[in-house]
Write a structure and sequence with these properties.
Layout: E1 9-19, E2 22-31, H1 37-40, H2 45-50, E3 59-61, H3 68-80, E4 88-98, E5 107-118, E6 130-137, H4 150-156
Length: about 170
């Protein structure tokens, strides 16, 4: 019988929404403090507060028994207000690393499901989940400006990271 690692296991879905004319652009947002992030992105209030000046990908942990595609559709709906978007994928990545919260417990395991989509042509970049939502050239943003390890996700997905953006 297999048991999850003592340091934890995260099953997460990420949306890489871009512009088909420029492969380096991806939708990133700064979370709105009034949005229900505990429900839509599994962010506790203190963690949400610490991310106010950081860029995030639309993402969430999977809900219990939720399929990766259903999770991606939920994130598109709840975080981007996109009811219908053509999702490509998933691309699946697995990472292990020592737990930051309890290094003595061993390695934490992440299983990441990445879905790609194009931002709907002619639609304004806006969502109540984010106080700011932009198509950003990843070559102009550095990992310290990204929250929740989303710089690692962009690198796994093949996006180059670069200099600091505010």
């Amino acid at each position: 019988m297999w048991t999850p690692p003592r340091a934890g296991l995260c099953l997460s879905v990420f949306l890489l929404v871009g512009d088909p004319k420029n492969p380096n652009l991806v939708v990133l947002g700064r979370p709105a403090p009034a949005a229900a992030w505990q429900e839509i992105g599994n962010l506790e209030p203190a963690h949400l507060e610490s991310l106010q000046d950081r860029w995030l990908l639309p993402a969430s942990h999977l809900l219990e028994f939720e399929s990766p595609r259903s999770g991606a559709e939920r994130v598109a709906r709840e975080q981007l207000a996109l009811d219908q978007v053509e999702l490509r994928g998933p691309e699946v990545f697995s990472e292990t690393y020592p737990s930051r919260l309890d290094p003595e417990s061993g390695n934490h395991w992440d299983l990441d499901f990445l879905f790609r989509a194009d931002w709907p042509r002619g639609r304004e970049l806006h969502s109540t989940a984010f106080k700011e939502l932009r198509l950003i050239d990843t070559r102009l943003v550095a990992a310290p400006n990204l929250g929740r390890g989303h710089g690692d996700i962009l690198i796994l997905a093949g996006y180059p990271l670069g200099a600091r953006i505010t």
